[in-house]
Design brief:
- The complex is a heterodimer of chains A (about 300) and B (about 230).
- By secondary structure, chain A is an alpha+beta fold.
- Chain A has two domains: about 190 residues, no CATH class; about 90 residues, Alpha-Beta Plaits.
- Helix content of chain A is about 70%, strand content about 10%.
- Chain A has a four-stranded antiparallel beta sheet with strand order 2-3-1-4.
- Chain A is elongated.
- Chain B is α/β, with parallel strands linked by helices and about 230 residues long.
- Chain B has a domain of about 140 residues: 3-Layer(aba) Sandwich (Rossmann fold).
- Helix content of chain B is about 30%, strand content about 25%.
- Chain B contains seven helices and ten strands.
- In chain B, the strands form two sheets. Chain B has a six-stranded mixed beta sheet, sandwiched between helices. In chain B, strands 2-1-4-5 form a four-stranded antiparallel beta sheet.
- In chain B, a hairpin with a 5-residue loop joins strand 1 and strand 2.
- Chain B is globular, with a radius of gyration of 17 Å.
- Classes of the chains: A alpha+beta (about 300), B alpha/beta (about 230).
- Chains A and B meet through helix 1 and helix 7 of A and helix 2 and helix 3 of B.
- The complex binds adenosine-5'-diphosphate and magnesium ion (MG).
- The site of adenosine-5'-diphosphate (ADP) has 12 residues of chain B, from helix 1.
- Magnesium ion binds next to helix 1 of chain B.
- Chain B: It comes from Baia soyae.
Chain lengths: ~300, ~230
Amino acid sequence: MKIDTLRRHFREAYRGIVKNSWMSFAAVGAVAVTLMIFGVFVIFAVNLGSITDEVGDNVSMNVVLKEEVTKEQATALTTKIKGLPNVNEARFISKDEGVDEVKKNLKDADFTRVLQKGENNFLPNLIKVTPKNVSVSKQVEDAVKGLEGVEGVKNSSTAKELLDSVLLFKNIILVFGVALAVLAAFLISNTIKLTIIARRREIEVQRLVGASNWFIRWPFFIEGGFIGFVGSVLPIGVLLLVYQGFVKMISGGSKNANLLQMVGFGDMAMYLTGSILGIGIFIGVFGSVLSIRRFLKI
Amino acid sequence: MIEMHDVWKVYPNGIEALRGVNITIDTGEFVYVVGPSGAGKSSFIKLMYREEKPTSGVVLINGVNVKRVRDWKIPHLRRKIGVVFQDYKLLPHMSAYDNVAFALEAVEVPTKQIQPRVEEALELVGLSDRMKALPSQLSGGEQQRVSIARAIVNNPGFIIADEPTGNLDPENSWDIMYLLEEINMRGTTVVMATHNKEIVNTMRQRVIAIEQGIVVRDEIGGEYGYED
Ligand SMILES: Nc1ncnc2c1ncn2[C@@H]1O[C@H](COP(=O)(O)OP(=O)(O)O)[C@@H](O)[C@H]1O
Ligand SMILES: [Mg+2]
């Protein structure tokens, strides 16, 4: 495309936006709201991604063995569990090893003194089992429960529940976001429709004198894309500011950083800007396509 | 050259606007198309600039079968043909100059060439001093001259006009006729549907008469032949 032509297309697109300024404004607003919600989703999704990774690690379950199970039986049982489908890893932890582990995890806090090895050790023998992934942990749990010598299974369900609610939350935002995106595309398509109607005579003349179909279409694509672009700028700005605040607040506070490990600002800025801008322009161009196909008879 | 071989045009509502038309118009000819209202003149003209496709038969423009032209190539076909209408089809918010420039812009003529070509076209139609005027500030005859300037600015081989003097008084009609004649003298083929008896009978060009979708008369130096 010639540079003159390109400049002209942008000029025409701009003219279209200014002419239907109220409708364009509404469309920009709809895109902005959509992308704001989408951006919140991205922030959660990216951060939850790292949280679910952690939860995923913790999804391993403790299989508590009955008191009478001997060390030899326990080793055999461990091998057996290892051979089950969907099991990634199984490790026997004796009562005494358990004491060490607890003390290590709790950094030898005072109350761990009640834990003693030998005769008075009230911890059970256990086998730590890690399923291949979170989604099969229930199956693994059921399979292990039925084995001889198993008293019960601990730990797995809470992790799974947490994970489930996290995923559900993600899906709710996603569905909501998609619905809004459709609405925004529809609003854009409506403003483009108005521009097409306002330009009916111009389009007729263009066809008559032999303008190519793409020459006629381009300004409408640019108009839609531009609405999408402008609609992305505001949410990007707001979300980045808010996120920066959060990151400061959380890392600036106590040594809780481990509890809620947030993705760094730089990475998040990249994800957010890229995805919001991309989706904004996509919604805009998609809205144009809807109208061009329906109303621009060339 | 425009050729039609056994051309039928049947609209979706079943009306047979053209019924077996055979015609050849050579390069450089001047042709009047006459006939009563509803005879099929406009349909005949629309087939030439591919506004309508023939239902059956073949329409050739410079040997190209318009029915076979791919959709995306139709614009290139249209660049060879300038079209003029009874109602001018000017853009009301643009000056005479911009209306003509619009046609050059639409076919992506380099910006540098636009001004000289627009000025040349407006000079040819005698509107050099009205370039800045909006259509609403121009008389009907002047508006039609702007539309002719727009039709010729791309140097098409054909000018096709559907009742270009239909809204004009006799004096303005004659101005438009002289203009089209001059354009024809420069080598452009002109096909013009008209109801203007006086003009047809005075100019004595080739006359094609259509009635009820059939060519009933085709004579060089013919007369209008109807009493309107
Ligand atoms: N787009 C159309 N759809 C249906 N019928 C049409 C259409 N255009 C023209 N006609 C009909 O075709 C016939 C010829 O019309 P037209 O070619 O406009 O004749 P003319 O220009 O000689 O008055 C008329 O009966 C008219 O009503
Ligand atoms: Mg007609």
